[in-house]
Amino acid sequence: MKLAVFGNPIEHSLSPNIHMLFAQQTNVEIEYEKILVPLDGFAKTAKTFINQGGIGFNITVPFKVDAFQLADQHSLNAQIAGALNTIKVDGKILIGENTDGIGLVNDLTKNLGIDLRDKTLLVLGAGGATRGILLPLLQQQTKRIMIANRTATKAIQLAKNFKPYGKTCGFGLEKVKHDPVDIIINATSATLDGQMPNIANGVAKNAICYDLMYGQHTPFMHWAQNNNASMVVDGLGMLVEQAAAAFEFWTGRQPNTPTVIQKIMALNA
Ligand code: ATR
């Protein structure tokens, strides 16, 4: 099975390592390459890959919206996110999926043992990453998801869009209060600039703090540690879980993720 991940930059992607471990585990023969896609060349690169026999690919920054536009069919998850991280080639049809939200939910519930039902969540950021995780989170019957964003209007709009699926509200980062929340998720891209979203100290008290980015010392994780969070987690588990959902989408085989998380952690240490 010819598989790949498309992105720019792509050099540091751990996806090939993760998928090769899944393949060994499940006895599926795959090749999985990293493809550096020119910023204006997503569709062309995808067509070349498919013509060469590619049967599926992952898509990472900054092509998730281009991938959505390229696909012929979309899962509900992908439709609502307006962005894809996975495409399956089915004859002439490209089927689009977004496994980011499922990946996050599986990491939280299965790997970390957190029951999301009736929990109050604060999600920081209102961009593509947030759109990708909201539906699977709401499907866990959360009590309320509050979306706080630097640009308040985007959070308000996003909360409105997701109202049919559960209780949501949106506001600016400056309105984040000290009222206790169960879980805080950093879905901003601030980490890429070495920054922490500008919210008041004290908010993290007793909350589980989860950064969608991975790496042991993101600014958000540092903030959470200094603000008495009950648990501080990076997004490595989510990375492996979203890959597992993509692998299953392509191959029909379900990998065992905890052992792969351990191996990838060791590789990334
Ligand atoms: P992604 O696909 O990673 O979500 P995006 O759609 O560009 O990328 O969204 C980036 C998100 O991170 C936005 O919510 C952005 O806030 P704005 O909507 O106000 O731009 C947020 N973000 C980026 N840098 C930030 C920073 N330094 N502090 C707080 N929020 C930040």
Task: Summarize the SSE layout with pairings.
Blueprint: E1 2-7, H1 15-26, E2 31-36, H2 42-51, E3 54-59, H3 64-70, E4 73-74, H4 76-81, E5 86-90, E6 93-97, H5 100-111, E7 120-124, H6 128-138, E8 144-149, H7 152-162, E9 168-172, E10 183-186, E11 208-211, H8 219-225, E12 231-233, H9 236-251, H10 257-268
Parallel strand pairs: 1-2, 1-3, 4-6, 7-8, 7-10, 8-9, 10-11, 11-12
Antiparallel strand pairs: 3-5, 5-6
This protein binds 2'-monophosphoadenosine-5'-diphosphate.
Residues 125-129, 149-151, 154, 188-190, 193, 195, 197 line the site of 2'-monophosphoadenosine-5'-diphosphate.
Characterise the protein shown here:
This protein has 2 domains: 2-98 and 237-268, Rossmann fold (3-Layer(aba) Sandwich), CATH 3.40.50.10860; 102-234, NAD(P)-binding Rossmann-like Domain (Rossmann fold). Helix content is 39%, strand content 21%. The protein has helices spanning 15-26, 42-51, 64-70, 76-81, 100-111, 128-138, 152-162, 219-225, 236-251, 257-268; strands at 2-7, 31-36, 54-59, 73-74, 86-90, 93-97, 120-124, 144-149, 168-172, 183-186, 208-211, 231-233. β1 (2-7), α1 (15-26) and β2 form a beta-alpha-beta unit. The structure holds 2'-monophosphoadenosine-5'-diphosphate. Residues 125-129, 149-151, 154, 188-190, 193, 195, 197 line the site of 2'-monophosphoadenosine-5'-diphosphate. Residues 125-129, 149-151, 154, 188-190, 193, 195, 197 line the site of 2'-monophosphoadenosine-5'-diphosphate (ATR).
Describe the structure using short key phrases:
single chain; 269 residues; alpha/beta; six-stranded mixed beta sheet; six-stranded parallel beta sheet; 39% helix; binds 2'-monophosphoadenosine-5'-diphosphate
